[in-house]
Amino acid sequence: MIRNKILIRTLISFVLPLLLSSCGTAEKNPTDLLTINTITDTVHNQEYSINVGDQLDVKFYYNPDLNEQVTVRPDGRISLQLVHEIMAAGLTPGELMNLLTEKYSVEIEKPEITVIVRSFSAQKVYVDGEVNKPGALDLFGSMTVLQSISRAGGLKDTARIYEIIVIRRKADNKPIVFQVNLSKIIDATDMRQDVLLKPYDIVYVPKSPIANLNQFIDQYIRKNIPIPLSLGYDIN
């Protein structure tokens, strides 16, 4: 029993400073929040891009018999009369209109076409980590980091609220990672931290240093060292 106490005390004396120092030296804000807000504002000001699952009305002013209502398939394509398969996902309605005008010009003279997005597919953001209901959330309109965490059931007691991580993919599909200090949002000292989320963003809430320490003790000490129940963690 005495040997167990000495071993536990020795392990904690080495592990605790290591855990705390690693948390204290974590990289801060890999991408500056001002840059993120600029990117986000630009994204929200851009014209809508068609997504898989969207329902589209394709209308011909002078050839109404060609009018169609189509749904963008999982492969991003739509099927239309005369021109058959067209890639629609990723295009704006205006870009798709121009593409269809070009394609139909081979079949009919001076086609006048308009594309209307009748209904939008549900886009997603993902919230994981120390929240009560992790998973995918439907993104309708705008949503901030704080709102996404609220919809995910709120924070657990083990959450590290000053280093929330958001992962986003840029137009070139490369990820950018930035940190959000939720405590500054809650006390309203820096509302820039509550950035608007973009479709398919990942919000990850890490564990607090104390929660990491408790997990370490539980996994690597209590379960691997035969400590009598009466002994517990009394290392005085």
Protein architecture, described:
The chain is α+β, with helices and mostly antiparallel strands. The protein folds into 2 domains: 27-45 and 122-222, Outer membrane lipoprotein wza domain like (Outer membrane lipoprotein wza fold like, Roll); 55-119, wza like domain (wza like fold, 2-Layer Sandwich), CATH 3.30.1950.10. 31% of the residues lie in helices and 22% in strands. The protein has 6 helices and 10 strands. It has helices spanning 2-24, 33-45, 93-104, 145-151, 182-186, 209-222, and strands at 55-60, 68-71, 77-80, 84-87, 113-119, 123-129, 135-139, 164-169, 175-180, 202-205. The strands form 3 sheets. It has a 5-stranded mixed sheet, covered by helices on one side. Strand 8 and strand 9 form a beta hairpin. The longest helix is centred in the first third of the chain and has 23 residues, at 2-24. The radius of gyration is 27 Å and the shape is elongated. It starts with a helix and ends in a 14-residue tail after the last helix.
CATH superfamily of the largest domain: Outer membrane lipoprotein wza domain like
Task: Strand order, main sheet: write it out.
Answer: 7-6-10-8-9
Taking the sheet with the most strands, its summary is:
5 strands, mixed
Helix and strand element order: HHEEEEHEEEHEEHEH
